[in-house]
Amino acid sequence: MKLLDPLQSYKIASQITFVQLGFILAISEHLIRDEFQLENRDSAILYMFLAHIFSFTMEFIRVMASKFDINNRIIFFTSNFLSAATYQSAIFYAQLKIVDTNDDSSLSSDARSKDEKALLWLQMEITYYYLHTALVIVFLFYQSVFNLKLREMTLNYVRKTEDELQKEREERAKNAQPLLEQIQDEMNLGAVSEIQIQRRIRKLNRNFKKQWNENYKNIWSPVQQNQDFLILAGSKIQVFIIHGINLYFTIIFLSQHDENRREDYKSYQTTCISIITFSFLIHIYTIIDEFSLLDFQKIKLFGWTIEDIVEKFEVFTPYLICIVIILQMIFVETPEIIAKYCAGNFIAIFIGQKLVELFENIAEALASCLNKQEQVRMKRDPADKFIKSEKTTIKQRLIHPYMSTVSLEIDIYAITFISLYDVQLQDQKQLEEALLPRSDSQQQLDNQQKTSINDQEKLEDKTEKQEGEDSSADEDDDSEQNQDQDQEQEDVDFLPNNKVEAAKNFASCAFIFLIQFLLVALVSFEFSITNQEESLTYEVLLTRLLCAILLHMQLERELRQSLTMLNFARSMVKPGQNRNAMIVVSFMQFTSAFGTELINILLICTQNSVKDVIMNFIALGVIAEIDDIYARTLYNNPIKQKLEDPDYKPLKITASAAVAGTHEWYMPATVFHWIMMTFYQCYYYYFMPFTALLLSYIQSKYQGL
């Protein structure tokens, strides 16, 4: 799958419009009941409420505009980024206020109760956010292992019946009548030619815009296939996570101890169990439907397809659960708090979903009415009026190829890798020439050529010797000067790449790796003995996250390069000593880059001031640049010159030309590549900077205890 934009991971949580509306409704209901106030937890409730409103407004405007074919993507993508940033900022602030250990002994019992309920609500907000992230990681894992299965529409052409043709003629005549009347009016005005030209221009623009929008909406089109995977599979991810969140969210909070819960009051707990059962069934169905080739549209049970049965179950069951919850809220007084909040969240999100669907249907109806005349104008007879198409769907595996090219930076790891591969090609070429069969006539011709060449060389040596004896002293001085010039010319020539130079490069690569490893180990040792007791502030947490993102952007290319080098070495290089060395080089670069990023995140999480976080981030970032710094000091290196050449063509990884080499390192390299590639796709590329947030939360929680 194509991983093109790591910032997409920060936009996913705020893109589900009805969830944002559901949280707005839920918070409003709690405020009306005076269960907590916006000022609780240092106004964290207020910031979350405003963030939900802003995110919902931006996404709602974008969705509604798309229904009317208003596609100003510059504004839409910018607003989407702003809404995501606003929501993320509110989440991070709420995360700090959860672990805040301020003394509340001076508060009244009512104020303390509201503060506890506000804390519970913030915990639910944080849990929802990280569950959303975790489910996206699970979705990426399923995609990496099983591949997403999507339905693709195919067209089968069959001959139309006479009744169908007659019906189409009548419909075309009816639809064409307004257009004919308009043309007649234009002809009466005497402006036929100019109006026709303008109409044709508008028609071309509409057709081009419509075709582009259709290609953008089609997941199989080249426009979509060149998008980041989270954009490509955005709708599938939303379907996957919504029931998963309802399932795991309810399980997590229902398993917590509720001091107010009593054995004789379990009405909301029973309702939550029904929510868990419903969400579990739909979630399992979604996993099977999206990641298997089973087509539930074709499997029937009691005369109904399984897809129809599940759709009806998914539509009517939430209504029944919501009716029960509403009746409980009206007629049942229960001391349960956690289960009540879980049930309230479910009904709020469900109502938000139905409201958004209602608005979308209204917008589609209005857009259809406004564009009805345009649709009549654009309607034309088919190419063959006697042929009709029947649509059928089949499931196809979504293969999103990526990292099929070994794009190399100018560092010692890349130089060593290409040097070893170049020597491997030289050895392979010599072996092929040695094993190439030669005929007797060719061998005789070669012997004759060698004999004539030897005779000519002997004659030239004899002539040169005679001329050398007759040379003067002045000519000796000239020859010495020419020798000095030749020596200077040899000093600037590039050394040829051979086994000796490749071995030197490998030794230098190992030395640089050892330096990076030792520096990372020393920083890790210092981190293990550091004792941090200062409280965490919002400014420091935000600085940690931003530095982690910047570091990730800096080091991601090195991990990607190491994985592509490893994949190329294990699948495209024939067995041999150099192949094993190439695998080792790939492993060293992966280890050094990932270790540097992880230790850097650990280090900045021990700093409790903005200045210290930035200074340590910059200082430790130099470790990642050591291989680049060393490569810049290399002179007269043919491999470096080759990589710097603008005409250099990067190595290609093609499945059809893969070499299934049988050697002792092939299977370990394949297993290691699969594990690290899965880790890279599922967590590292999108979510590695989140490690700073997780460590900060654990650190603050530990200090609070």
TrEMBL record:
Composition bias type Basic and acidic residues, residue spans: 455-468
Segments for region (Disordered): 436-492
Transmembrane segments: 44-62, 74-96, 129-150, 268-288, 309-331, 506-529, 683-700
Comp. bias regions, Polar residues: 439-454
Keywords attached to this entry: Membrane, Transmembrane, Transmembrane helix
Biased amino acid composition, Acidic residues: 469-492
Keyword presence, Transmembrane helix: yes
Domain of life of the native organism: Eukaryota
Protein name: Uncharacterized protein
Species: Stylonychia lemnae (Ciliate)
